[in-house]
């Protein structure tokens, strides 16, 4: 695929701005080639970003997993999975791509461009993943570290904010955040009673902190009973205002 001098200049300026040095400029360019562009220019679809996107998706998930794993040592596997899923969703990656100026870098067919394809969430998110895939390949055995460092230096706060935003919807996570801010200790949950038949039980849970019961809750599952107990604690501690 031919790359014009103006396009090379654009890609060089992008690299200089973000501390990148692609020896293979065609690889970097490919990360921004949408399939509509290859179709209109009679190019094989292999010239588009699709295969790089597949690779970059894996790089992104591993990097975000590592960041969450290292920054939130007390979060369980289920919660980590949920938060990671949010962090690597199109709505977040789209914002990353916009911050890097991908709207001006992505190559689209005339019709896709006419309909605002360079501002579409799905297209820019895919281009971002493809870009990470290109970084991984360009830097060879140091590719993952380069991709990790790039995400860490440019988007760490945004990635960590995903946890903060998600925890607002999760009473247990919110209560844990509160207790850890006091003395880095976790609230303790205890199932104190089970009522009903084996297939239709109601579980009663108490949550305590520093040997004091701070909340109670019940539900048809232990997990939900714990969430309800945590919410009860948030109300009683005035962390969350109970709706009238």
Oligomer kind? single chain
Work out the helix count.
Answer: 11
The N- and C-terminal alpha carbons lie at a distance of: 64 Å
- The CATH architecture classification of the largest domain is Orthogonal Bundle
- For the record, the count of structural domains works out to 2
Structure in words:
The protein contains 11 helices and 3 strands. By secondary structure, the protein is mostly helical. The protein folds into 2 domains: 163 residues, Ribonuclease III domain (Ribonuclease iii, N-terminal Endonuclease Domain, Chain A, Orthogonal Bundle), CATH 1.10.1520.10; 66 residues, Double Stranded RNA Binding Domain. The chain has a 3-stranded antiparallel sheet, covered by helices on one side. β2 and β3 form a beta hairpin. α4 crosses α5, α4 packs across α8 and α4 crosses α9. The longest helix is centred in the middle third of the chain and has 25 residues. The mean pLDDT is 92.
Write the layout of secondary structure elements.
Blueprint: H1 5-17, H2 25-30, H3 35-40, H4 50-71, H5 77-87, H6 90-99, H7 110-114, H8 121-138, H9 143-167, H10 171-183, E1 188-195, E2 202-209, E3 212-219, H11 222-236
Antiparallel strand pairs: 1-2, 2-3
Helix pairs in contact: 4-5, 4-8, 4-9, 5-9, 6-8, 8-9, 10-11
Structure described in brief:
The protein is mostly helical and 244 residues long. The protein has 2 domains: 5-167, Ribonuclease III domain (Ribonuclease iii, N-terminal Endonuclease Domain, Chain A, Orthogonal Bundle); 171-236, Double Stranded RNA Binding Domain.
